Amino acid sequence: MYDKDIEVLRNLAARTAEIAALPVQKDRLRQWIALNALRPERPLFTIDQIPWHEMDVDDFLKLECEDDFARQIETALRRQLYKWEYMRDDLVIESHINIPMAIEGITYGIDVIEQLVMTDDSNDVVSHKYIDQLKTEEDLEKLKFPSIRLDEEENSRREDLAHEAFDGILEVRMDGYTPAYTIWDMIVRWRGLDDLLIDLIDRPEFMHKLMERVTDISIDMLEQLEEKGLLSQPQATVHCSGAWTDELPQEKYNTNPKAKDLWAFGMAQIFSTVSPEMHDEFEIEYAKRYYDRFGLVYYGCCEPLDKKIDIVRKLPNVRKIAISPWADIDHAAAQIGKDFVLSSKPTPAHLAVSWNPKAAQADIEMLLSVCQKHNCACEFLLKDISTVMYKPETLWEWADIVRNAIN
After folding, report:
1. What is the average pLDDT value for the chain, to the nearest integer?
2. How far apart are CA 191 and CA 324, in angstroms?
3. Farthest CA pair distance, the chain
4. From CA 320, how far away is CA 297, in angstroms rounded?
5. Tens digit of pLDDT for each residue in 356-402?
6. Where does residue 356 fall: left (phi above 0), alpha (psi -120 to 50 degrees), or beta otherwise?
7. What is the CATH number of domain 99-150+170-406?
8. pLDDT tens figures, 162-194
9. Domain extents in the chain
């Protein structure tokens, strides 16, 4: 790593450490722990999955490092500092930095074959047409059990560079793999939407065999990560939401966390229009095997779960349930009550095409009112923000609206 790169990273780290030392960080940490323990002090909110290519102001996000690995770290630091300066959600900035371990072999043995259509070459949100690669039972053999390993040489290089850049400023933590059970999000990319949904009806036995194999591989992958000490350290986030908790780890560990010490997350977004019975049969019954191994679970994403809370309750260790903009929030909150954190997803549509602050405020006030009505522990998670039409200040204004509403 170049001397210039080290200087750039140390300057960013110094500003991060300065912010991490502010008393507000302890307050927010306490509030997240309380919320995740179902004893909330107030609703909390986060902003994630941001169109960063549209957000730069005065070269705040302009990269200066030359080494590729240094640029990855620089990107993460600049984005965190940007959120602090311009759109203060309930992010907790801590006095350490996570450096990803050099883990290899996390694969199901099959690549995605697709056609892409994009409207903005700078945006990673694109349209996909997937080619079906799993049409027959013989095709299921394409799905392979992995052999996961740590690239010791590359891992040591990353760790040494991180210590050179951050020692004396931020604690360096080598961070492992964050587990997730997102089987259907993977299958749809291997098969395409139409074939997948038709086969749920026409070939249920085949789809069960597919789910058995992918679930078995996922659990085998988890067991390898656990055995080799490659799981994530205590997590700050779980699926874009604050994960701080005093309930994990369940037992003391040194450098080898177990699944029971961590959050997992999962979803079945492609099941947005399937019946609760089908969702239960083809997702919940398999996911139970996976989530049973974890300490806590965040479940759901864009799929509306308001009519499916009863089957979500079958999943072990669930603590947070995502309620998307397409769900009936009142019905969902009535079913969730005090039993889970209601992770509400305000619509990002108000930020696209034409900024509508009055509509955004009305949306937040409605969500707050419903959660208060049903005594739900709640958070607001703005995500999937495809565009703000290159007007970053609209996202700052959205954060101000939520901050004023919940305080």
Report:
1. 95
2. 25
3. 62
4. 7
5. 999 999 999 999 999 999 999 999 999 999 999 999 999 999 999 99
6. beta
7. 3.20.20.210
8. 999 999 999 999 999 999 999 999 999 999 999
9. 99-150+170-406
